[in-house]
Design brief:
Helix content is 43%, strand content 16%. The protein is α+β, with helices and mostly antiparallel strands. The chain has a domain of 126 residues: 3-Layer(aba) Sandwich (Glutaredoxin), CATH 3.40.30.10. The strands form two sheets. It has a four-stranded mixed β-sheet with strand order 2-1-3-4. Strands 5-6 form a two-stranded antiparallel ribbon. A hairpin with a 5-residue loop joins strand 3 and strand 4. The longest helix is centred in the N-terminal third of the chain and has 24 residues. 24% of the residues are buried.
């Protein structure tokens, strides 16, 4: 079969057993390293609780404390979801912004085949269309204020601190209040 292919298909020569084994080994090592990094991150999604009850409880707490709810929708199956949770809780400035302005919850989502995930998708207006994790901000009445594609906050293999802070600052209760309106 290889003899039938044009030589331009193999710009560095036809692969041999040795080079194929090296490539396979490199792919295996990269896969194992990636899985190892994923396993080291703390699992933050509680898969045993009802996500709708979790959201309702967070809305109630947000209303009482005059904060917003930040729903990080995703799952323990998602490396970028775990990276975001790790990133925002390890940075003191971002963590303080979260504590002061948000009830921060991790809403478990598996697939639309799962009834609870379908309820989450309906309640939060199909946030999964942006990929995972997706960040949904609710006010104390449960109204969706914003849905953020977290890929816009990424930087290489992590997240960009300035972009995450800007996102969080733009959706604080103060930023969303009527204080900015010009009085007549």
């Amino acid at each position: 079969m290889l003899t039938l292919l044009h030589k331009s298909f193999f710009p560095y020569g036809k692969p041999n057993k040795k080079s194929s084994m090296r490539r396979l080994l490199a792919i295996l090592v990269m896969t194992l390293l990636s899985a190892s990094l994923h396993a080291q991150l703390k699992k933050v999604y509680n898969e045993s609780i009802d996500p709708i009850e979790q959201i309702d409880s967070a809305i109630k707490a947000a209303k009482q404390s005059q904060r917003h709810v930040l729903c990080q929708v995703g799952g323990n199956w998602c490396p970028w979801c775990l990276k975001f949770a790790d990133f925002v809780t390890k940075d003191d400035e971002i963590f303080k912004m979260l504590q002061d302005n948000y009830i921060y919850i991790h809403v478990n989502y598996t697939s639309l085949k799962d009834e609870k995930s379908r309820q989450v998708a309906e309640r939060l207006q199909n946030p999964g269309r942006f990929g995972f994790p997706v960040l949904v901000i609710l006010n104390g009445q449960g109204k969706i204020l914003h849905t953020q594609d977290s890929a816009m906050l990424e930087n290489g293999e992590s997240y960009n601190k300035e972009m995450v802070l800007r996102f969080l600052k733009n959706w604080t209760p103060e930023a969303c209040s009527d204080h900015w309106k010009v009085q007549k």
